[in-house]
Amino acid sequence: MKIAYTMAAGRGDTDLLLHGLSRRLLQHGIRATGVVQINAERDDAGPCDMDVQVLPDGPAIRISQSLGREARGCRLDPAALERAVGLVEARLAEGADCLIVNKFGKHEAEGRGFRTAIAEALSADIPVLVGLNRLNAEAFVQFSGGLAVELAPNLEDLANWIVPAARVKATAA
């Protein structure tokens, strides 16, 4: 089982890191699928809009709801997230060298979201890299059976783990 995770300290840093990694994988000819998150600041000074790009070439899907400037709590649009999940699962079925999931979040911790896609990739011996935050770390450790490798939140360490693992998968296909 090839599964790893990374956690960057700053808000949005993991998103930027995984987005950069997805670009590097394209340069290496590695067929990555999954999602990377792209946050767009808002002119009205409200919370950013959250979009995910389905790898490798889109579409981009808005996964946040605009609930107003004073709204508190989760802004995730569950239907939009599930649309992204469906697209990723279809691309996994077509064949991929690796899976990148921007975040093992609340939905995954509760058994939804990308959880099934992660399990399907692992059962097909496709390496998986997940972004993680401290809030869902315990649920992720339970899900991965404690077998996931923690990687430092820098592009070189992520690439040094996933490129060889993805190439092994690509060669075996």
